[in-house]
Amino acid sequence: MNKNYLFNLALIAIAGSFGGLLAGYEMGIISGAQLFIIDEWNLSTQLQGCLVAIVMVGCFIGAFLNGFFADKIGRKKILGILGLVYLIGCICCANAVVINMLIGSRIINGIACGMANSIVPMYLSEISPKKTRGFFASLFQLSFTIGILCSYLIGFIFSSSGNWRAMFLTGAVPAIMLLLLYGLLSESPRWLVLKGREEEAKKVFEKIEEPESINLQIAEIKEAMNEKSSNSKKKIAIEKWMYMPLFVAIGIMFAQICTGINVIICYAPKIFQSAGFNDPSDAMKITIIIGVVNFLMTFVAMYLSDRAGRKPLLLSGAAIMGVSMFVLAVSFIFGESLGDMQKWLAILSIIGFICSFAYSLGPVAWILVSEIFPLEVKGFLMTFPVAANFIFNIVLNALYPIMTETYGIGATFGLFGVICILSIIFIILFVPETKGISLEQIEENWKKGIAPSKF
Fold this sequence. Notes:
The chain is mainly α. It is built from 22 helices and no strands. It has helices spanning 3-41, 45-73, 75-94, 99-127, 133-157, 164-170, 172-180, 189-194, 198-208, 211-225, 230-237, 243-258, 261-274, 280-304, 310-333, 335-338, 341-359, 361-371, 378-381, 383-407, 409-430, 439-447.
């Protein structure tokens, strides 16, 4: 690709990826903040789960708002709106005086994160050329992991003082950066063509594509659209051929979340405390290592996604995740007999889990979901897997403290290991390989009823 096109594409993608950064920050900051909030307000087990999980209720709302507005006002405007909403939420969290106010403020942040989780992968997949779509779509997961790592670092910095309010307020930084970089964003050229604004779409394509390919790109998009009216769009949304990609999308979101990733992300310091790292600062130090590993392994995913393909990454990652979860379960079940070895076994198993998730189900699930829906109703259909993702998160994060209190940490992580095995079976049977296939061809394959294993 011409260096000028690559530079322009990189600027647009980096600016858009700040939406993923703030979503990652919100996901990770509660892991450190809750250690001090629980003590300050003497929270029950149920309230602890609610405090962590409630942000996903906001995410659920945000996902549906995105589905309603993304196809009406465009991808770019949604990015600006979510930055503003998150900024307001961070200020409210930092000034909460009672637990109910903090919970309400985290719902506001969740709305912004729900919009980000839906719009950023969609935007990046539509703005990037098909040969490098996996790489640029992976920027969402990369920015998300940067946000998590930043939240862990901020949590450690303020852990000595226990200033959880400063932890939340620092989250305003990525929101402000997104708003400042808003002017660098270009609207999705595919959305512009969808709205009949071909000249504007050509101007965007001129920044990121070779001139001779622009007319072909627009022709492919128009052919996929078939210039249907809004009534026909509603018809597409309920056609039988759409059930299969919708099933695949929701299934891959189940595999991504219910294998335990957000339990690790949101409860890491508490898990390490249970493994023997009693001091909050020590637990946060180990948690930072997890954040660094998560961040670095995302580069592996960006390198491999357009080389190894989506499906091999998903299968190998899920397998290693399963082994890691079973090892973590053993470290807690036999904790007393293991002694100090429990600490290091817990660290190694969680690092193994994060490594495998970060190159597989983390980024590839979002890449896959952003690829398999038709352009005309993508904003609407993306709502369902994103909303499912948040529902799974709400249930899992809310139940985790109760599950560990009732059944024990070891049994809980053993269950996650079983879900990893079920995920492998699902991927083998139902997930298509989309590497190197245009978005328009993927849609055509679904319409023809081609089996996912034969894409």
